[in-house]
Amino acid sequence: MGETDYGTAPADWREWQAYEAVINDAFAPFPLWGLCVFDAALPEPVLASVQRTHPQLVTTSGRSANADFADPATYLRALPVPDEPLEDTPPLLVDDDISDYAGLRHAVRGLLGSLAGPREVLEDFLLAVDEMTSNAVRHGRPPAGLRLWVGDDRVVCTIRDSGTGLDDPFAGYGPAHGEDLSHGGMGLWLARQLCDHVVIRRDDHGVRVRLSTSLR
User: What sections of 2-71 are H helices per DSSP?
Assistant: First the structure.
């Protein structure tokens, strides 16, 4: 594993914090432990997150339980969602009440196909958008909507529905139905594999999934 860059964008740092909490939950059933080494000179926000995501600490006095460790689900729910500046600009594609799912998919494909980014990256992003839009239309509460932005270095899409689903903080970090993939439930999991960043926001108006990927 390469060296972690703690000076990256807020979205990158949030992904790393979420990863720390998710692996605590994933490995909890197994008799495993690992040693993470951090420089005490790292910025205070980094060290604070380390304190919250590691159940034990090793100091000059030895290994001991960490009183500041947070339950992984609680920690994930409390992680702030960083702002995406592109969302404050006019989107290139808008459908706030999806009625023609196939037509919208063709419109998204056409827009992404016109961009100059790497083909495989854009195809991955299209698949993620398609999966999340399908989920919103099939499983969410109408109206469902989509907005897509393109910046100089990235593409961003939000898909929303008016329901109350996706309350599980671990949603999408594994297939929804475990190892039996015949039951489906892979859409959000696939999106997390295909995009640089996936965040879920819930409020009184419904659920929004924001996908973003670098074009560089």
Answer: 10-27, 44-53
- For the segment 151-208, what is each residue's pLDDT rounded down to a tens digit? 999 999 999 999 987 788 888 887 665 565 444 567 899 999 999 999 999 888 899 9
CA distance 84 to 169: 20
- Angle between helix 44-53 and helix 10-27 axes, rounded to 10 deg: 20
| Position 212, amino acid | S
Distance CA 127, CA 158 (A): 14
Residue 23 to residues 33, 34, 45, 115, 182, Cα–Cα distance (Å) = 11, 11, 20, 36, 25
Residue 120 is which amino acid? E
4 in Cβ contact with 50 (< 8 Å): no
Domain 85-214 has CATH 3.30.565.10: yes
Domain positions in the chain: 10-78, 85-214
* CA-based radius of gyration for the chain: 19
